[in-house]
């Protein structure tokens, strides 16, 4: 069974640069602690076997090969780079579903067999959000002193992007509700939504960081965008990298963003892992 080939500085030139003169070489930059890397790895191994002879798949452990990661300006894990004729021609960041990876490869390899996507729940539609907001208003009107219903309304307002009213409703909450876990979570969500208003797209922010890895405002906005889009692992990675690069930027904005983001992430193992890495950067 073909799998991604582990590459080091010693054999990088032969396994990647020279090999890419004959066929495209996919390079997966990963690390053992990176949970999204572990979900992407089996997909790349499957493609390595399926497209043996058309595509070479390699992987680089950035913990063991920081010079190679630095050479490519890697700022988030996983990052996948496609090499042709000795040069990088395309890349993506973050764990992606198999179908998305196939679509990304198709322009470089030609049409690929489609993979049947697993059944997923349909995303909430605009009508769903309208209905939820109307129901939250009705329920609160019937029981105006019920704290949980007040929080339900704020959550429905944020879902509908009714930012001004969400801010007002949060400000009207009694201290006990405002300081509750759910109240803090909604306040942090509102803060990120406000930051994201009018911000460039993820693709535009990626392009800015490719041009200048020290574009700290772009890195922060990228983390916010990713977090609100549901890609918590890559979002936290962006905030960590901002913290690592410049603790003074925005009065330690990377660390502050991490602390806020933790309340929005349901994956306790991921939060614990990132907290440990954040702590290691504090001293």
What is this entry, summarized?
Residues 3-110 form the Thioredoxin domain. With 283 residues, the protein is α/β, with parallel strands linked by helices.
Keywords:
Serine Threonine Protein Phosphatase 5, Tetratricopeptide repeat, single chain, 283 residues, alpha/beta, 5 strands, 14 helices, Glutaredoxin, 5-stranded mixed β-sheet
Within the CATH hierarchy, at the fold level, what is the topology of the largest domain?
Glutaredoxin
**Which class of secondary structure composition applies to the elements?**
alpha/beta
Strand portion, in percent? 5-15%
User: What share of the residues lie within helices?
Assistant: 55-70%
The average pLDDT is 87
**Level-1 CATH class name of the largest domain:** Alpha Beta
Number of domains: 3
**How is the main sheet built?**
5 strands, mixed
Which second-level CATH architecture of the largest domain applies? 3-Layer(aba) Sandwich
Order of helices and strands: EHEHEHEEHHHHHHHHHHH
SS element count, helices: 14
Tell me the name of the CATH homologous superfamily of the largest domain: Glutaredoxin
Shape, per Cα inertia axes: elongated
Uncertain runs with pLDDT below 50, 5 residues or more? 115-127
Please report the distance between the alpha carbons of the first and last residues.
44 Å
């Amino acid at each position: 069974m073909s799998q991604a080939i582990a590459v080091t500085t010693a054999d990088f030139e032969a396994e990647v640069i020279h090999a890419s003169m004959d066929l495209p070489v996919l390079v997966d930059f990963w690390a053992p602690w990176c949970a999204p890397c572990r979900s992407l790895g089996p997909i790349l191994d499957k493609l390595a076997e399926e497209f043996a002879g058309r595509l070479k798949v390699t992987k680089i452990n950035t913990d063991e090969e920081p010079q190679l990661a630095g050479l490519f300006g890697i700022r988030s894990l996983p990052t996948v780079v496609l090499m042709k004729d000795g040069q990088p021609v395309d890349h993506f960041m973050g764990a992606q579903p198999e179908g998305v990876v196939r679509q990304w490869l198709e322009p470089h390899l030609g049409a690929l067999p489609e993979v049947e996507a697993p059944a997923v729940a349909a995303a909430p539609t605009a009508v769903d959000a309208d209905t939820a907001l109307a129901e939250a208003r009705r329920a609160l009107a019937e029981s105006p002193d019920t704290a949980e219903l007040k929080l339900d309304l704020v959550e429905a307002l944020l879902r509908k992007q009714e930012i001004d009213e969400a801010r007002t409703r949060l400000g009207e909450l009694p201290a006990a509700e405002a300081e509750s876990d759910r109240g803090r979570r909604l306040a942090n969500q509102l803060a990120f939504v406000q930051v994201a208003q009018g911000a460039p797209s993820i693709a535009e922010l990626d392009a800015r960081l490719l041009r200048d890895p020290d574009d700290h405002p772009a890195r922060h906005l990228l983390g916010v965008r990713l977090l609100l889009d549901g890609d918590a692992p890559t979002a936290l990675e962006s905030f960590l990298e901002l913290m690592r690069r410049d603790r003074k930027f925005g009065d330690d904005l990377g660390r502050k963003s991490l602390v806020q983001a933790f309340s929005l992430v349901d994956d306790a193992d991921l939060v614990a892992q990132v907290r440990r890495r954040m702590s290691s950067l504090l001293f």
